[in-house]
Specification:
14 strands; alpha+beta; six-stranded mixed sheet; 28% helix; 401 residues; three-stranded antiparallel sheet
């Protein structure tokens, strides 16, 4: 019978009553960061939360230095960078009415083209905005407030916060914070990078996330300081809704609640789901040499988010996209991580050492085994230092195998 097919060597099946047990050594017990910190908010964030100081909690992640960085980049982008209008073609090859503003970077002493200009023109009727960190903070508050009021209503643009009823919401405290012209200016020109540092596609150093790379790194660095991961973390995919055409790495995942959008690999606290770090999946547009295999993605997420320091004994949970024998060995051999993941069984007949021991049962075989049927098997492995450990595989039937 398929359900009784013996496992291949070097796997051995665990049978009730055979007396085999394995307990990880005491040296593999998780002791936490600096010898005993439990999962949860850091002491600084916990103190702020107890005091009910929500603005300071927000600024502990989105710091004033980060807001100042955004203000400087936005000022350069709007008022200091030089651009020239370049014809733009539509899908039929016809020139559109509005050209593209292409950036130019003249050298000292070089004569500018006659049609060179800044992105945001300053005239008598159109004044120049002084972009500061407080300006950015007020704008972010207006955007988040609009999101709370509209609650996902895509039929009204964000400008509705300045419109009177019944078409808008007419929020006085936002209108008193900044005029509509200032809000629209920042929405059009907010920037997070120096345009002159960007490399074109195909050239060495090209990064599809160049425009937001700096701000992502800043926020991830701060997030790591406000939450302690604890002994259990989870890695999975998530989707950010996006239906535009400005980026090339849009993904379609029909089983996700958000089916079209930007795919990210996220590492979270298993107890609370708090985000500890993420990596945007750029597909074929990724930086040259980027390895998007499961082992490489997991390794980068753990290392980049400081989850490999004092981590021995920590448990990582994943789904079937990440779960492989290679990943289980890599995590324990390199970091001392325990690993728990789900796998989809296959009907591959030729089995090697790194293949799982149990095959996918045919529909007829699954009908013959009762609900709750299971089998277990183990394999012994050695780390690079000669330390022995075991990997266990379990297959069972619930509604299906």
């Amino acid at each position: 019978m398929e359900s009784l097919r013996p496992v291949h060597e070097p796997w051995f099946e665990l049978i009730e009553g055979d007396g085999f047990t394995y307990t990880p050594p005491r040296t593999d017990r998780y002791t936490g960061v600096s010898g005993g910190a439990d999962w949860g908010p850091s002491s600084q964030m916990l103190q702020l939360a107890r005091g009910g100081d929500l603005p300071t909690m927000f600024l502990s992640v989105f710091t004033l230095s980060t807001l100042k960085f955004i203000a400087e980049r936005t000022t350069d982008y709007a008022y200091k960078d030089w651009v020239v209008p370049t014809p733009r073609l539509d899908r039929d090859g016809n020139t559109t009415r509005r050209p593209i503003m292409s950036a130019i970077f003249p050298q000292r002493g070089e004569t500018l083209p006659l049609n060179a200009r800044h992105r945001c023109l300053v005239t008598k009727k159109k004044k120049m905005f002084k972009v500061t960190e407080h300006f950015i903070l007020a704008w972010l508050g207006a955007v988040m407030t609009a999101g709370a009021f509209f609650n996902g209503d895509n039929n009204r643009g964000i400008d509705a916060i300045y419109s009177n009823a019944s078409y808008g919401v007419s929020i006085p405290f936002i209108q008193n914070t900044m005029p509509q012209t200032a809000f629209i200016f920042l929405r059009n020109f907010i920037h997070f990078s120096r345009t002159k540092d960007q490399q074109p596609s195909g050239r060495r150093g090209y990064d599809p996330l160049f425009k937001v790379r700096s701000i992502i790194n800043m926020l991830m660095e701060r997030i790591r300081t406000v939450w302690i991961a604890g002994d259990r973390v989870t890695i999975d995919e998530s989707m950010i809704r996006y239906m535009g055409r400005a980026i090339a790495f849009i993904q379609y995942m029909p089983r996700k609640p958000i089916k079209h959008g930007i795919k990210v690999f996220a590492v979270c606290c298993s107890y609370t789901g708090v985000l500890l770090g993420f990596e945007v999946y750029c597909g074929s547009s990724a930086v040259e040499g980027t390895d998007n295999s499961a082992v490489a993605v997991v390794d980068r997420l753990l290392k980049d988010n400081n989850l490999t320091n004092n981590c021995r004994g920590r448990i990582l949970y994943t789904d079937n996209w990440y779960t492989t024998m290679s990943l289980a060995y890599h995590l324990y051999n390199k970091y001392g991580y325990f690993f728990c993941g789900a796998m989809v069984p296959t009907d591959k007949k030729a089995r090697e050492d790194l293949d799982v021991p149990f095959l996918k049962l045919s529909n007829g075989a699954q009908d013959k085994v009762p609900r709750g049927w299971f089998r277990e098997a183990c394999i012994q492995r050695k780390t690079d230092t000669g330390k022995i450990f075991y990997i266990q595989h379990t297959t069972w039937k619930d509604r299906k195998q």
